[in-house]
Design brief:
- The chain has 9 helices and no strands.
- With 208 residues, it is mainly alpha-helical.
- The longest helix has 32 residues, at 37-68.
- The model has no long low-confidence stretch (mean pLDDT 78).
């Protein structure tokens, strides 16, 4: 896999994952609907900052290990593949019937307080770190330094997140309404599950 192929494949997968409803989407939607676009934008910036911290930790901690050890690569490959397949099968077989944007917590505060809440939402969620460990390394081309490239992928994911949050804020009501429709939520979950399953199987078959 060349660098260009890796970036294109990651772009497709990350775009689908970015638009799939989750806690981050709930926080931005709820903040935009109740507190206004400025605070929602600050929360979105905080969320992406949290992703970048996890991305840096994975890239430069895990990256050094991957560069040095073939055994570490194999162990991570099989663990990541199993995790992604498990996530994919569960999303396909047990999709949600609804995504309740109103379930995100509402708290008082102004300015940087909203950025801090978004930041802590991701930074204190170990699932983000586990996901990055499982997902990002499979897009590493042969012969490329692991740390910088993995962090580049995390930064690209963050940029997609900012663009998606901007779209959410600009169209809060229509998107919030769509995300409450059972058919749309089930379709998004199954689509994301298919992406997880495909990349998990691909990771299991990948040779370094």
């Amino acid at each position: 896999m060349t660098v260009l192929q890796a970036l294109l494949a990651f772009g497709v997968a990350a775009a689908l994952l970015t638009i799939t409803p989750g806690l981050d989407t709930a926080l931005v939607l709820r903040t935009a609907a109740v507190e206004g676009p400025k605070r929602a934008a600050l929360a979105g910036v905080g969320i992406v900052a949290g992703c970048l911290v996890w991305g840096a930790a994975v890239a430069f901690g895990l990256g050094a290990l991957l560069d040095a050890s073939q055994l570490a690569f194999q162990v991570l490959k099989w663990a990541g593949a199993a995790y992604l397949v498990w996530l994919g099968v569960n999303l396909i077989l047990k999709p949600r019937d609804r995504f309740d944007a109103a379930s995100a917590p509402v708290q008082d505060g102004d300015g940087l307080a909203w950025m801090r809440r978004g930041f802590l939402t991701n930074l204190l969620n170990p699932k983000v770190g586990v996901f990055y460990v499982s997902f990002l390394p499979q897009f590493l081309p042969q012969g490329v330094a692991a740390g910088p490239f993995i962090f580049l992928l995390a930064a690209l994911h963050g940029a997609m997140g900012l663009a998606w949050f901007a779209a959410l804020i600009a169209a809060t009501r229509p998107i919030a309404g769509a995300l409450q429709k059972a058919a749309i939520v089930r379709w998004l979950d199954r689509l994301t599950g298919g992406v997880f399953l495909a990349f998990g199987l691909r990771l299991a078959l990948e040779r370094r």
